[in-house]
């Protein structure tokens, strides 16, 4: 008798491994917490948008003498 394990993944991309019978008995709880069966594919990383540099020029005020 071998004990099967399943891999679960959440929206953040974290992967955990649990016994299959534990997953089947607590399926609603895992789904409620955002865990789904991992299909073996690695999650695609979303491209990070580069922030534009903003350069502000400092203008000196003229003083009256």
What is the count of DSSP helices, taking H or I runs of 4+ residues? 2
Identify the strand order in the major beta sheet: 2-1-3
Indicate the overall shape.
rod-shaped
* Helicity range: 10-25%
**Unreliable residue runs:** none
Q: Note the beta-strand portion.
A: 15-25%
Mean pLDDT across all amino acids: 84
Helix/strand order: EEHHE
Largest sheet: 3 strands, antiparallel
**Head-to-tail CA distance between termini:** 95 Å
Helix/strand-derived category reads alpha+beta
Assembly type of the chains comes to single chain
- Rounded to an integer, what's the Rg over CA atoms? 26 Å
| Overall number of strands | 3
What's the topology here?
Elements (H helix, E strand, L loop, with lengths): L4 E5 L5 E5 H6 L1 H6 L3 E2 L28
Antiparallel strand pairs: 1-2, 1-3
Quick recap:
The chain is of the alpha+beta class and 65 residues long. The chain is 18% helix and 18% strand.
What would you note in describing this structure?
- The chain is α+β, with helices and mostly antiparallel strands.
- The protein has a domain at 5-37.
- It is 18% helix and 18% strand.
- It is built from two helices and three strands, in the order ββααβ.
- It has a three-stranded antiparallel β-sheet.
- The longest helix has 6 residues, at 20-25.
- It starts with a strand and ends in a 28-residue tail after the last strand.
- The model has no long low-confidence stretch (mean pLDDT 84).
């Amino acid at each position: 008798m071998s004990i099967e394990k399943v891999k679960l993944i959440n929206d953040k991309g974290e992967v955990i491994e649990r016994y299959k019978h534990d997953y089947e008995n607590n399926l609603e709880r895992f789904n409620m917490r955002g865990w789904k069966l991992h299909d073996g594919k690695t999650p695609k990383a979303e491209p990070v948008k580069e922030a534009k540099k903003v350069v502000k020029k400092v203008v000196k005020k003229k003083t009256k003498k």
